[in-house]
Design brief:
Helix content is 0%, strand content 51%. The protein has 110 residues and is mainly beta. The protein has a single domain, classed as 3-layer Sandwich (Rieske Iron-sulfur Protein), CATH 2.102.10. The protein is globular, with a radius of gyration of 14 Å. 28% of the residues are buried. The structure holds FE2/S2 (inorganic) cluster.
């Protein structure tokens, strides 16, 4: 595992999120009240772009079918809903984040 520089801290201001492609992975970095989190950017249901979703606390909702994920752990909190039908979806990977000299660093496999 290696820490990769993802962006400057100013690129992800408080209560915002942004997707980055690092070392071949699409990662969502979220800044929730100054706490930084990184999870896979693509929804585990049908690869919805979570960076275009909605943040509510540490929960991000997929813009495609509404699955919810915990930004702090990558856990799937609820799956997609199609009318009265609720499905399950799997957890996402979450990654360690640190800030070094104003840069957001995310730990990824080499
Ligand atoms: S693609 Fe995200 S809920 Fe379907």
């Amino acid at each position: 595992m290696t820490f990769y520089r993802v962006a400057s801290l100013s690129e992800v201001p408080p209560n915002a999120m942004k997707a980055f492609t690092i070392s071949g992975r699409e990662i969502l970095v979220a800044n929730i009240n100054g706490n930084l989190y990184a999870i896979d950017n693509r929804c585990s249901h049908r690869k919805g772009d979570l960076s275009k979703g909605v943040i509510d606390g540490t929960t991000v909702t997929c813009p495609v079918h509404g699955s919810k994920f915990d930004l702090s752990s990558g856990k799937a909190l609820s799956g997609p809903k199609f009318g009265p039908i609720k499905l399950k979806t799997s957890d996402l990977n979450s990654y360690k984040v640190k800030v070094e000299e104003g840069s957001i660093m995310v730990e990824l496999p080499e």
